[in-house]
Structures are given as C-alpha cells and as structure tokens.
Amino acid sequence: MELKKNLNFFIHIGVSLLIITSSNNLLSFCDFPTNWSISFQNPATPLMEGIIALHSDIWAIMLFVAVFVLYILCSTLQKFGNADVQKSYKVHHNSMLEIVWTTLPALLLCVIAIPSFTLLYSLDEIVDPSVTIKCIGRQWYWSYEYSDYAVDADSGLGGGGIIFDSYLLQDDLLEEGQLRLLEVDNRLVLPVNSHIRLLTSSADVIHSFAVPSLGIKLDAIPGRLNQTTFLIKREGCFYGQCSELCGASHALMPICVESVGAEDYINWINTKLDEA
Ligand SMILES: [Cu+2]
C-alpha cells in the first residue's frame, strides 16, 4: 500500500512537470525573446519543429529515468534505513539483474540516438535553393548580399546584386511597437515557403548568425564560408542576435528576418534593384 502511494506521488510530480513544460511551449506566441521565458520561441521552420520535438521526447525519457531512480532510492531508504534492521544481507551477484541494468540503459540510449542522428543529418541536407543569401558579420553589424539578382552580369564574383548593411536601430529612432535592441534599419527580407541557402562569413572576428525561431545558429568565421538551408513556413518577423562574443558591441548587432509572400518579395527585390 505504501509502495503504491509512493509511486502515485512520483507519477503525479512527473505529469505536473510535463504539463508545465509543454504549456510553456503553447503560451509563447512570439518570435522574439520574452521576459522570464524558459521555453523555445514558436517554430517557423520544419527544422525548429524537429528540434522542439526531439527536446520534448528526451525530456519525457529523462523524467521517466529520474522518477524511477528517485523511487528506487526512496524505497531503499525506507526499507533499509530503519535503525531496528539488524540483519545484514549477503548478496553476491545476480546475472539477471546485471543483464537488465546493462541492456536497459543501452536500449534507452539507442532510443535517444536514432531521432537525434536523423535530425543532425537532416541539418546538412542541401535542397536546390530558390534564393541564396550571403551574410557577413562585421564589428558590429551584418552585411547581406543577394547575389542571385546581379545588376551587372559582367561584374563577376562579389559584384552586382543587392548588397546592404543592417545596423541596430538606435533608441531615439524607434517607432511605437518596435523592439529595443532588436530592431534594425534594414531587415533581411526572404520569401515564405521557399528553400533558402544561407552562407555566412566574417570580415574581422568570429560572429554567429542565430535566429531561434528559425532553428539557425551558424558561425561566421573569417576566411571560411559556412552553409545551411532552411524553409520558412509562415510570414512574420523573426528576431535573433549575434551569438559569438565578438567584442565591445557584440550585443548591439541584432538580426531581423522578415518573411513575406512571393509577390511582396518580388516587389521588394525590384525596389532594391532600382536603388542600386
Ligand atoms: Cu557577436
């Protein structure tokens, strides 16, 4: 009876913890960090959905293990912790028990490893991209290049296309509803539901291009070109920040990705090309 009561208690705690963590996922409806949030931002790419699903699965397994170990610990203390238990047990070995406590953790690790590796290798999957963006980290702002739309085809590598810098919007320039320390003067505009290839590099020190709701964190390393692809599933603004300590104003080089419909995207490209 006591045993059942203990078990019920721990199951209750486990389920409560699960509800707390999952409800937090539902509550956060924003694509920027919010005060006291301990959960993920809303996913906007299949990749981020996969990351959140894997996180939840591992959490469930972790809770199961923690509850089981805690139960064994408490029941052992309760059974053998009494001062009036004088009898000592001469237990040598138990083959069955040893097989179980070796194979069970191994199986559990396999259960975690399979979805984990699937997700890891899907990150490297390069789908024929519709748009290629080159993103260069600088102290302390980002430069974006859309080389697909070269104005002058003869200009060769690095010439032509749409190139602009994206700086933090200073406090006195902020308009109502804009986010302090996250809003930029030139957003990175991308089409929704399209495969996008992102290339990162740096002009000075190591930076990192990170946007949580897109599930992207790609280092920008001087002299190297890193690559990833993603697909944004919905329209909106997704805020991120440089995530590699890069100097005095590291905190002042935010990222704002705006995903728009195909027509708006073409209009935006045309406007930018006219400006160039
Ligand atoms: Cu930085």
UniProtKB/TrEMBL annotation:
Pfam families: COX2, COX2_TM. GO terms for cellular component: mitochondrial inner membrane. The lineage of its organism: Eukaryota, Viridiplantae, Chlorophyta, core chlorophytes, Ulvophyceae. Binds a copper A center. This is Cytochrome c oxidase subunit 2. Residues 32-127 form the Cytochrome oxidase subunit II transmembrane region profile domain. The gene is cox2. The keyword NAD does not apply. GO terms for molecular function: copper ion binding; cytochrome-c oxidase activity; oxidoreductase activity. The chain crosses the membrane at residues 7-27, 58-78, 99-123. Its main location: membrane. Its cofactor is Cu cation. It is found in: Membrane; Mitochondrion inner membrane. InterPro entries: CcO_II, CcO_II-like_C, CcO_II_C, Copper_CuA, Cupredoxin, Cyt_c_oxidase_su2, Cyt_c_oxidase_su2_TM_dom, Cyt_c_oxidase_su2_TM_sf. Residues 128-271 form the Cytochrome oxidase subunit II copper A binding domain.
